[in-house]
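FAQ

Q: What does a record look like?
A: Structure on top, sequence underneath. For example:
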């Protein structure tokens, strides 16, 4: 079964087509009230580490290296429970991963979508 996972900015209007809405940022989005987020879950533990996030700085020229380092982080035992939980959600429901990042194509949400939909989640 193919997983139905999408990603977008949390500031966009929610939709019934979103399925389960999961915030994958480590910090709460600026200016967003929790009541307006319409989240099913906030999984901080699947977000990139603070160190990786700061190093990356959302610079597209660093995205390939960010992706590689983030895949490495996702394999860490300390993250296993959160990653497995997110995978379980995606196995049973349509999921929309949410982020506050402006450039969602170069975000952890894009990397997580690839991770969750790739064969064996090996981080190919």
């Amino acid at each position: 079964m193919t997983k139905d996972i999408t990603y977008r900015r949390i500031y966009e209007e929610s939709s019934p087509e979103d399925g389960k809405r999961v915030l994958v940022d480590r910090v709460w989005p600026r200016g967003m009230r929790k009541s307006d987020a319409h989240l099913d879950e906030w999984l901080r533990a699947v977000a990139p580490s603070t160190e990786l996030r700061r190093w990356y700085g959302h610079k597209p020229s660093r995205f390939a290296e960010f992706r590689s380092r983030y895949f490495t982080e996702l394999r860490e035992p300390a993250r296993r429970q959160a990653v497995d939980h997110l995978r379980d959600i995606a196995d049973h429901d349509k999921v929309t991963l949410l982020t506050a990042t402006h450039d969602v194509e170069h975000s952890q949400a894009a990397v997580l979508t690839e991770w969750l939909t790739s064969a064996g989640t090996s981080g190919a």
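Q: Is there anything notable about this one?
A: The chain has five helices and four strands.
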